[in-house]
Amino acid sequence: MTFRLKIEVLSNCIGCGICWTICPKGVLTGKLRERASVLNESLCSGCFSCQNNCPYSAIKVIPIQS
């Protein structure tokens, strides 16, 4: 059984920059005060740093069985 990770940026993202700054793989990108976007989901290592450090709970890392 293998898993891939889906990264969702929810509508309550305010573009604070924490997620794209903290991501060790550069999965997320953005501009301050604009909603973050997923640059390359396949690079995600599953550390959950973006999700765990978002003060607005606007990032979700979802394991999907493939």
Describe the structure using short key phrases.
two-stranded antiparallel ribbon; 66 residues; 4 strands; globular; alpha+beta; Alpha-Beta Plaits
Task: Describe the protein.
- The protein has 66 residues and is α+β, with helices and mostly antiparallel strands.
- The protein has one domain (3-65): 2-Layer Sandwich (Alpha-Beta Plaits), CATH 3.30.70.20.
- The protein contains 2 helices and 4 strands, in the order βαββαβ.
- It has helices spanning 18-22, 49-53, and strands at residues 3-9, 28-29, 37-38, 59-65.
- The strands form 2 sheets. The chain has a two-stranded antiparallel ribbon with strand order 1-4. Strands 2-3 form a two-stranded antiparallel sheet.
- Strand 2 (28-29) and strand 3 (37-38) form a beta hairpin.
- The chain is globular and about 40 Å long.
- The mean pLDDT is 96.
Could you give the distance between the termini? 7 Å
Give me the Rg, rounded.
Answer: 11 Å
What's the CATH architecture?
2-Layer Sandwich
What is the class in the CATH system? Alpha Beta
Strand order of the largest sheet: 1-4
Q: β content, as a range?
A: 25-35%
Structural class: alpha+beta
Integer average pLDDT: 96
Secondary structure: number of strands = 4
Sheet having the most strands: 2 strands, antiparallel
**CATH topology, which one?**
Alpha-Beta Plaits
